[in-house]
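B., you asked whether I could sanity-check this one before it goes into the benchmark set. Here's the sequence:
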Amino acid sequence: MSAPQRQAGTQEGRAARATGGDGAPERTRRLGARDLALIAVFAALIVVLGMPGALFAGTAVPITLQTLGVMLAAGLLGWRRGALVSLTIIVLVAVGLPVLAGGRGGLGVFAGPTVGYLLAWVPAAMVTGYLLERARRLNAAVVFGAMVLGGIVVIHLFGIVGMMWRAELSLSAALVADAVFLPGDLIKAVLATAVALGVYRAVPDLLPRRPRA
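And here's what the prediction gave me:
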């Protein structure tokens, strides 16, 4: 193969990754059957991760495995589909389905102290997915950093505000209550990173890629 041919093939490969492989820009590409199936599968995964139940460690906000599913959805599907996965769960909660850990669901959840953590799932997925889509390299440090920024920092910021609002805690009290979740969430970020790196190698076209020039 000549040098011009190799260069053309490289440019075509970059274009395919930037468009999701179907010729349409990722930002404007409509969701296809494969996208909808993936969103449904990862929404189901988040529900399944809630089945072990919830642990209340001296706070009104439970410790669950479901944020691991939020990290995985964003890290493997990208910001757009990952956010839709989280939005699907929030809608299911709103209509009364017991899809949260401990069998919780219904509008009452949005009046409780956990509302900030729950609503944060969408922006958390957007941040995580966007960072990974735009990353030049998907190594362990980059993936873990994206998981931490989206899956921990964003969710905890929203969670702290939610506890101050719905539980009427002071900022210091909310920070102390929130700190209980940090060790477990760091472990989830490590697990999500390990799973994501394995999936990237096995299914390299699953995550839409638009790396910065």
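One thing to flag: The two ends are 26 Å apart (CA to CA). Otherwise nothing jumped out at me.
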